[in-house]
What does this fold into?
Amino acid sequence: MATIIGIKTKREFRGLTRWGRIFRNLGMILPVIVFVVLIFTAIFADLGWIGLPDVGLAPYPYDETSLPDRRMPPAWVEGGSTKHLLGTDTLGRDILSRAIYGARVSLSVSLLAIAITASVGTVLGIISGYAGGRTDAFIMRITDIAMSFPPLLLAILIAVSLGPGFFTVIFALSVLGWAGYARIIRGETLRLRNSDFVAQAQIIGTPSWRIMLRHIFPNILNVLLIGITLAVGAMILAEAMMSYLGIGIPPPMPSWGSMVADGRNDLDRAWWISTFPGILIGLVVLSGNFLGDWIRDKTDPRLRQL
Amino acid sequence: MSKIILEVEDLRTSFFTHAGEFKAIDGVSFTVHEGEIFGLVGESACGKTVTGLSLLRLLQEPVGQVVGGKIILNGRDILELSKKEMREVRGKEISMILQDPMTSLNPVYTVGNQISESVKLHQHVSDDKVEDEVISALRLLRIPAPEQRIRDYPFQMSGGMRQRVVGSIAMSCRPHLLIADEPTTALDATIQMQYLALFKDIQKQTNVGIIFITHDFGVVANICQRVAVMYAGKIVETASTSTIFKAPRHPYTHALINSVPRLDRKDDRLYSIEGQPPSLLNLPPGCRFAPRCPDVQEICQKEQPPEVEISEGHTVSCWKVK
It folds into this structure.
């Protein structure tokens, strides 16, 4: 936390046209658009949650089968129909509708898992770094164990013993995921712990919990935020992997991972079944990474372009 | 002489590392009176800052520990207080100003917010009174337009201004004792003079006792009433400022004063003391200054010199004086 250059005006924007400004911040604008659209469609897939199950963005219910329309290609491909814009799967279910409902599952699972892992990891990391000594050694050894355990193996173990379901998936993703946060946050805390402003806070008699909450936590927020945005992609991928392996959200509830898995036997004759959910997974992972990079560039004084 | 607020008796602080025990402070005794500026002078790594941190009990435990002695503040030994009681003492009875104003403030809060933290911790006053206290603390350090300044962030202020804010935090609860750890070292010469004048002013206004840690004899001459000279974890000489400058008795004090550049003498080369301070891991059995001392005798190598009071308030630890 060396000198922070005190520039009140947004000098980085000066001299740029509006399009120049937009272009420079595409790394933030595009991912935000992707997330807003996806969250919007997830919420308004249907309005069942306010008592209107028949109204919504999804053209069909996710489990409505139509055997005559099995493996119908997307509308713009020969043999396709505007009835099913992105085609249908092997049971004749509408891919677009399932992808929209899938956003619900994929996003809620990954966001909840991130909320849990980030909170646990941050709390443990700050305590570990600030307390030091035995507390630190104890927490860090547990972190080491968590990081050295193969996550997929544990996820399978948990899914098998608890039975598949929404909360099982979240639990399986969270049980090891906090360790990475704990490590990073501990490192940042160590750096801040020896800084003069923490010493100054101790000098005036500030209790330890208050120093952690008021002086250390706000100063690690940027690192935490970068970690979270990068984790969005990783969590969606992990959830997709679990669903692909059949230990995720149980059918017929769609998640993007299970949709990709559904189409794997038909890749040669019905490529669209796996491709569209696959594109969505890629899009979200990429958006998370871009957003993380953008935040890092903006908050790290060494990388900030003036 | 006015009331004694701090009495340090035979304070010993060590750092326990893999290499062994570093005796950073080895039997230091001194007193500070109400409304007095007491200088603690010595070269780098002689234990000045560690003395300050020991008084606040803010050493990084378990590596750094006070291993002996007494710190009697306002009549009670603060080494015997519980951690919670000690937190009450910090900021309220003893406070400290650190060296570097650029890093002593938290970049994410306004200065008003940071000063109010101490006020809220120690003075149980209503929220609208807190702001009054904050403004009065800024006013004490003569910060212009405090009503506007409380909404500024540290990065909007200059180094000198920030050091005043740090001073405001330290003084916000009007402590009895203020430890100033080289508060002017990071400032340029003109701002330094202003800051020193401010210190004298604060001391007069609030009657606070100040321990002024420095390596600069110019600063000592300017503001201190009494001075203790430290060398390798021990105080070698304590006297009033005028005595220290006119009649230093310890060879180290003498050498230190001689090494200050002076305008009224034409020297080609600046005086320097030969050799280096001893390693705190491997201290000589006798006087610590013996290896570098120009007046070394046989006994100096073997036994540590006792502390002798040669006149009222002037104590020296040197065999030559004995």
In short: Chain B has a mean pLDDT of 87.
